[in-house]
Amino acid sequence: MKSYTTLSEAINDLTKRGYTFNFNIKDDCIESVENKTPLQPDEFEIDEVHRFQEMSDVDNESILYAISSTQNTVKGLLVNAYSIYADSASTALVAKLSLNK
After folding, report:
1. Domain spans of the chain, in order of start
2. pLDDT tens-digit readout, 66-84
3. Start-to-end CA span in the chain (Å)
4. How far is CA 97 from CA 55, 57, 91, 100, in A?
5. CA distance 48 to 45
């Protein structure tokens, strides 16, 4: 897995590698911004995980997930603040995302 210095560098490279969709976390799934396709935890794989922390603010940490779903033929990215999803997402979704940190 490639190592990146910044979040924007990672996003640019992964987009070039085919991760072109953008995902948001919903209650029990992730959803593509572009086509509103919901993916349940068992319908996608996390191919890569990258963490970024701002040197000036140690509490400001982001996680970038490179996600693919062969079932739905989509590859995309999910950017999230560290552990922010734990309050609103389902147990299954939290478990899937936490497994790959």
Report:
1. 7-99
2. 999 988 889 999 998 765 5
3. 13
4. 24, 24, 10, 6
5. 9
